[in-house]
Fold this protein.
Amino acid sequence: MTDSLKFFPSGPIPKANSVGDICAEDAGALKQMLSRAQAFERLNQLASAELPEDLARHTRIACIRDGVLVIAADSAAWGTRARLQSEQWLTAVYKYWPGSIRQLKFRVQTRAPQTTPVKQPRVLSEQVCDHLSQCAENQSDAELAAILQRIAQHRKKSDPTPD
C-alpha cells in the first residue's frame, strides 16, 4: 500500500463516540442544545394544556430568548388568533417559566405534512420485461434468475383496443 492510500496513522483505529456519549458530556454544546429543546418542549406541553384546544394544536413555543417569548403558528390566521389571545399565552407561560418575559412575538412556521408516501405500483414496459426474462433465462445464478423473473412480472397492462 502506498502512502497516498493511507487514511489512518499506523496503529489501532480510534473508536468513534456514540451519540449517547456525545450527549452525556457535561460541557458539550449538543447536550446544552438538547436540554434547552427538551425544556421548551415541556414548557410548551404545560402551557398548551392551559389554552383552548384548537389554539394549542396550531401554535407552539418556538423559543424564549432575552425575555422575548416567540410563538410559532401553523398559518397567518392562527398567528392572528394567537396574537388576539396573547394574554392567555402569557398567563399560561408565567405559571411554568421562572424568568421574566417582557415581549411576545409571533411567527408563521408551517409544519411539514405528516403524510405517508403513496405507494405507486411498479410498472415496466413490455420491452423491458422481455429483456429481463431473457436475462433470467441466460443467468447461471438461480437466485438472480428468480429475482429477474419476479421483476419481469411487473409488466405494464396493455390497453384494450377499441372495437
